[in-house]
Amino acid sequence: MINVAIDGPAGAGKSSISRCAAKKLGYIYVDTGALYRTVGLKFSLCGADTSLDCDIERILADTSVDIKFSNGEQRVFLDGSDVSDDIRTPQASMMASAVSAKPQVRAFLLEMQRKLARENNVLMDGRDIGTVVLPDATVKIYLTASAQVRANRRLKELLEKGEKVTFKEVYDDMVKRDYNDMHREIAPLKKAEDAVVADTSDCSFDESVELVLKIVRERI
Ligand code: DC
Hints:
5-stranded parallel beta sheet; 9 helices
């Protein structure tokens, strides 16, 4: 199977670029951030906040996370319900970042990700795909852009969805989340040694997709 690992900070356009590149390659696109968001949602529903001052094991033991593909589109399920839309709020982002720092949560989601990669040609994006989940991936890409550019892209997405947010809120959230993701003890966001860096700060969406495809095609 061909496994393409794409890691990088929040708002680098990973999901939209990866989704489009995967379609062109005919691979399944796996958005692993959605899995952490789903677990985060579960903890919110259980009344936890980002301090996660709760019995993590007990909640996980009573949690089922599933990933299904319909017309090539990934949907995520929490305890049997499709929560793919509910996990896209700024609050869900912060909870996702909080739960993702917990080793129990990472262990809980690891095998599901590896299984998908064993059974399919995948383009999988996240923070630790090239470093932890798929260390033997066929191609590893570290997709990034400046914080200013990333915050602007994320702001546009949220405004289009009708969220009431300002640039400063999005930027501050992003910088905080980058910090959390890069400084946590377990599976911190970092470039795998053998990853190719793709900086899309000055690229249009189409150019970013082309850049990813070029890197993949040169290596398979
Ligand atoms: O990519 P995203 O913004 O949907 O990710 C949500 C959070 O989940 C993010 O703060 C970091 C975390 N995450 C992770 O720790 N490991 C992954 N493979 C994917 C996401």
